[in-house]
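Entry:
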Amino acid sequence: QVHVVESGGGLVQPGGSLRLSCAASGRIASSNHRAWYRQAPGKERELVASIIGGGVINYADSVKGRFTISRDFAKNMVYLQMNNLKPEDTAVYYCRVWATATVNYWGQGTQVTVAS
């Protein structure tokens, strides 16, 4: 059984910062592929950032230069540092964790609201 839990969401003003955390527990290697997605009301879920192992990182164009994905192998955690937040970043943010190439798990999501 694998459990994925996100935390760190909240309400922040435009230009502010938040740091999301994703904890994975169970039979899953800390070095496996991890990713952050988001889903805004009325929109499809979209990839925000992903990290494979310790070095291959990808970002959506809309967050490049503002968001940073990182991981702590020892703690089996992945983080998303979000700076210079904009109202259009408002969404539920989900963590996705791969156990194998074809098996992956989602967390329950954490709400991020950017508003003045």
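The mean pLDDT is 94.
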